[in-house]
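@channel sequence for tomorrow's demo:
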Amino acid sequence: MPVVATPLRDEISEETKTAMRAKDTVRLSTLRLISAAIKDRDIAARAEDRCEGISDSEILSILSKMVKQREESAKTYEDNGRPELAEREKTEITIIRDFMPKPLSDDEMKAIVAQLVEESEATCLKNMGKIMAQLKSQYAGRIDMGKAGAIVKGHLCR
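C-alpha cells (generated this afternoon):
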C-alpha cells in the first residue's frame, strides 16, 4: 500500500534531493537518517494495521527524539574530550530542527497548561495523564514534555 504523503514528509524528501544536488554530505546523511526513522515507523504502523503510514505529528515526535538523542551524545562527546564529534552532533541537531516548529517558551507553556487545567477542571494528579496527552497531541514537536510535566504537576498540586 502506498504511504500517504504529508507536508512534512514531502519537505524532507525535497530537501534530500536538494542536498544531493548540492553535494552537502552532512545534511544528506542527516536527512537520510530522518527518512530511515520515518520508514521504520511506517513499517511498524503497517504491522498495527494503520496502512496509510504515520502522520506529521508522529514525524515531529520522531524528530524530537532524534534531537534529544543527539543532545545527549554531544554532551557525552564533550565530556570525553571529543569536540569534533560533539560538533557533528550539534550540526545534525540544527538540520533536524529545520523541520520542527518553533518550540514554546516557558511562559507560553505555563499559559497553555493553566488553560488546559482550567478547561478540563482537573484538580488532582489523577488528571495529569489526560492533560499530558492533550499537550502531546496539540503541541507535538513544540513542547518539552519533561518541562511540561513539571508545570502540570505544579498546577495540580496547589
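heads up for whoever presents: Residues 106-156 form a domain with the Arc Repressor Mutant, subunit A fold (CATH 1.10.10).
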